[in-house]
Amino acid sequence: MSTAVRARDLGKRFGRRWALSDCNLEVPAGRVVGLVGPNGAGKSTLLNLAVGVLTPTTGSVEVLGSRPGAGPEQLARVGFVAQDSPTYGALSVEDHLRLGARLNPGWDESLAQARIARIGLDLHQRAGRLSGGQRAQLALTLAVAKRPELLLLDEPVASLDPLARREFMQELMEAVAEHELSVVLSSHLVSDLERACDHLIVLGESRVQVAGDIDDLLATHHRLTGPRRDPADLPAGQQVISASHTDRQTTLLVRTESPVHDPSWTVSSLDLEDLVLTYLRNASKQASAPTLEVLR
């Protein structure tokens, strides 16, 4: 299967507020996909729709070719670690493994035990007494040991210190390589996604702003700096993503499949953070722009 998640005109409204709207995307299978955006952008809503915890207000979402939560077989194919890596505080690590074995028909006990031993968790320790990083590792173990085809992670490292975050991401990458998982990793920390992901989805103001393979996105976005000029004068095929001007100078961020040959421009590349922040700023500006009404 070439597509892990497919959304068409997907939207979710809570009361009068749209947490996600007009979402159209395809998440490729066999990849590690970074879902990035600020708090409130719709990342958690999208993932909860993908696992069937929420139902769409508009549109549709398909996961591994089926409706999310369509039945036991479909549920067994998807692993999910919700925000804050939820565990049961009164249960021990060993209790969590027993629970995982009961709830998941494809449970791999040897994998679960090996991961717990490798990360150094005490089987008799209650989850409520574990550190944030340890709880995150326990939650990841439960998700991986059910042997899913698709693993969805909702900001699993947001509350961890830098060392615990690095250890979690390393364990995740090892699990992906060993078990050939498709992964969607939600985060607002671009640095974590840059190390781990090969495909990117940027959410801003409840909408998809840009999506694609990271290498392709970086190769087709350029910063142009030169004498002040009107961006409308650029050749066809150079899409202006953002523009800024001084009295004498223009700086543009453009997306194009072709080389920029105009010698009046100084062309420089972007890093992933530059790319993400530009799209998020554009989304914020569009959302805050006043709506003009025609008086009759």
Automatic annotation (TrEMBL):
Keywords: ATP-binding, Nucleotide-binding, Transport. SMART domains: AAA. The keyword ATP-binding applies. This is ABC transporter ATP-binding protein. Residues 5-230 form the ABC transporter domain. SUPFAM superfamilies: P-loop containing nucleoside triphosphate hydrolases. GO terms for molecular function: ATP binding; ATP hydrolysis activity. PANTHER family: ABC TRANSPORTER ATP-BINDING PROTEIN ALBC-RELATED. The keyword ATP-binding applies. InterPro entries: AAA+_ATPase (IPR003593), ABC_transporter-like_ATP-bd (IPR003439), ABC_Transporter_VariousFunc (IPR051782), P-loop_NTPase (IPR027417).
